[in-house]
Write a structure and sequence with these properties.
Layout lengths: L5 H6 L1 H10 L1 H18 L3 H10 L8 E2 L2 E2 L1 H7 L2 H16 L3 H12 L15 H12 L14 H19 L2 H6 L1
Antiparallel strand pairs: 1-2
Helix pairs in contact: 3-4, 3-8, 3-9, 4-7, 4-8, 6-7, 7-8
The structure holds fe (ii) ion.
Fe (ii) ion binds next to α3.
Protein name: Phosphohydrolase
Keywords: Hydrolase
Pfam families: HD (PF01966)
Length: 178
């Protein structure tokens, strides 16, 4: 049972604000990759797509003299920590099941090891799916954050993904998972 949809999350003003900062087109693309990979790796596509949609909402803009400063970003970035916390707050506010909210937040927290001291991360399948989905849409120089997507098209794609997730949750393979 899904308590809330991707569309509800996507349309919330807080999600809109942070998704626009890190790139709506990237978030939509990663959500689609996450759906495909979740089915492939037999993890819950509802959790995977929600984590994927929100995985980068913790990004902060590291600029020096109006230009993106990669060094500064590398040194100071905690977007996975910030994003996990923001996503959890938003999901609970929207009425998500608390256990699902925790799983999604954890998948965001652990979708990258970029902020960890030793860079060694042992990921559970859901967390791995979100990382692989993110990597599938990565472009050199972080260009995936700047790709543009029309608001209406983004909404339509998220609504279509909601239908795919709902449809899949009704199929036999998922019942076996649960
Ligand atoms: Fe990303």
């Amino acid at each position: 049972m899904r308590e809330i949809t991707l569309t509800q999350i996507f349309e919330h003003p807080i999600a809109q604000k942070y998704l626009k900062r890190s790139g709506v087109a990237h978030a939509v693309a990663v959500s689609y990759h996450a759906f495909r990979l979740a089915v492939q790796h037999q993890v819950n596509p509802d959790l995977a797509t929600k984590a994927a949609l929100l995985h980068d909402i913790g990004h902060y803009e590291w600029y020096t003299d109006g230009k993106w400063d990669y060094e500064k970003y590398k040194k100071n970035d905690i977007h996975a920590i910030k994003g996990a916390e923001r996503a959890h707050k938003l999901l609970i506010r929207l009425g998500e099941n608390p256990q699902a909210a925790k799983e999604i937040a954890l998948a965001i927290l652990l979708h990258t090891d970029s902020y960890l001291p030793d860079g060694e991360l042992h990921q559970r399948p859901l967390q791995k799916v979100v990382r692989l989905a993110d990597e599938a849409d990565e472009e050199p120089g972080g260009n995936h954050h700047y790709r543009e997507m029309d608001d209406q098209l983004a909404l339509k794609k998220i609504q279509e993904l909601d239908e795919k997730v709902a449809e899949f949750l009704n199929t036999e393979p998922f019942r076996q998972l649960g």
